[in-house]
Amino acid sequence: MDNNQQDMQKRVFIFFAVVAVLMIGYSIFASLFLPDKKKQEPQQVAQKTEIAQKTEASQKTQATQEPQPKQEAAVIYSTGGTFNLLLDSRRFRADDLKNLVTLKTEFGTVKFSKIGGRVVSIYIDRYKTDVIGSFSKQNKIFPTEIITTDPQITALINFSEYQVSQNGNKLVFTLKKNGIKVIKEFILDKAVFTVNIKTEGLDKYGLAVIDGVALDKIPGRSYGHYGPVVKTADKLMQLDADIEKEQIIRGKILWAGEENKYFIQMIANKDGFSAVHIIPVSKDKTIVLSEINNGVNGFFLGGPKLYSLLKELTEKYQKEWGVNLALQDTISFGIFGILGKPLFIVLHFFYSFTHNWGVAIILLTILIRIIFFPLNHKSLKAMKKMSDLAPEIKKLQQKYKDNPEKLQQEMMKLYAEHGANPMSGCLPILVQIPVFIALYNVLMVTVELKNAPFILWITDLSSKDPYYILPILMGLSMVAQQWITPSSDKNQKMIMYIMAIVFTFMFMNFPSGLVLYWLTNNILGLLQSYIINKKLGRYEKKPAK
After folding, report:
1. Is 368 helix (H, G, I), strand (E, B) or coil?
2. Cα–Cα–Cα angle for 116, 118, 122, nearest 5°?
3. Which helix or strand (DSSP H or E) is residue 464 part of?
4. I need a surface site. Which of 86, 141, 192, 498 has the fewest CB within 10 A?
């Protein structure tokens, strides 16, 4: 067997083995530290909620026990609060979600309830998703509600019918009752609502606005963040939804809300918020509300975490408000985020020209192969040098077969004399593994690829190939890699064929966008190997002896 071919097969085998180990290890890590908890069914509450009881208990405790806040970067964590969400029968009796105002937009349909002047539905056609989740609807609690420190006033504001005026995509809800006045103005622009809330007669009460209510979990293994998210002047805080006590964050807060890996509900206020309350209402379900003075002057985002949209909003309000909202940081690119984010930016750049995410993935793959070409070329040259030394190595193995230590010394000496390095073939493998994992995370958490078609049967690059055509083609491309470098070692060839079968089955449940990347990478690898091998004379006919 040609030693050069043997080294190539070992190199490919090591690559796939390392990738398999990493992916299995990551799965084990995710199962231990990122458990995919079963989706909890929202439960309607017909009496005082557990969180209300905890709040009352914490208020009594505060009178006798000195709180011990933890301070970090001008943000203070504490427990307890005075805002009652009224998750009781009054909520369910007040609104049957039929007295609605509907706006048709270029991306879908938005519905407001005249009861409380609240956003009760944001359905996005492209993603076939309502950003207002099932928990909100079943418990009749929604973003943009005004919560006060007086339960009776809270009920009055949220369970009364508002007068509505409409001018195009501008809606104004007005409530005048019992000496209280509330005006909610919404101006819809794509997935963003300009929100202006003004109140009168509420000066003696503490006020808060609901920024977000727990979104629906994305089915399958959870990637990205799920739960409360708060942006302070210093950092973005993505908090755990599995909490037992109300958390209060104080400091200079720019915006707050709830998110999952694809969608977000959040409110940003021009003057910021002084405190944010994160209230657990069920297992893995939280509601986020921010304290306000007499109103809100900002915007509400209830929609997909599109990188272009988040960046556009960040830049817009950087100019208008002079603060960095850093909305695009809510997209979690995983453990190799330092690679994932640039990969996505380049992918987004290609999409801006092709308007097809599948084609953009192919172009990105080509770019990555071009970047790694020098490494691969150097690796193949090093393997050729090792192949030239094979006869000498064989002699040393025969000469020192009974003295492994001496054999090792002589082989190292031989390598040094000829400038050979047996490990040089592994460098491209080690470099490409982080890129592979980073791209995997990109394809798993970016909503741009959700329901994004490629060609024919591939209608969602974020989901597996429904007919398994791409994984099968990928497996065949691995077989072709063996065919292009024939070997006389039948056992090793059989091992590589088995590896092709194993990886075909493993990739069947991967996002089709990732399989497309790997298939394209294999095809380019075949072309590159053929060109380089031909240049090195591997396919030249040897003269007959």
Report:
1. helix
2. 160
3. none
4. 498
Q: Cα 34 vs. chain centroid, distance in angstroms?
A: 14
Q: Residue type at 132?
A: I
Chain segment 5-41, per-residue pLDDT in tens: 344 444 444 555 555 555 545 444 444 444 443 333 3
CA dihedral angle for residue 405, residue 410, residue 412, residue 413, rounded to 10 degrees: 150
SS3 label, residue 358: helix
Name the token pair of 248. 């209060």
Rounded (10°) CA dihedral 313, 317, 322, 327: -30
φ, ψ dihedrals at 45, nearest 5°: -110, 120
Q: How many Cα atoms are found within 13 Å in the side-chain-facing hemisphere of 293?
A: 7
DSSP annotation of 127: T
The pTM for the full model equals 0.76
Q: How many residues does the chain have?
A: 545
CB atoms within 10 A of CB 192: 18
User: For residue 40, what are its two tokens?
Assistant: 């909890």
**Across the strands, what pairs with 501?**
none
349 three-class SS: helix
Q: How many CA atoms lie within 13 A of 349 on its CB side?
A: 9
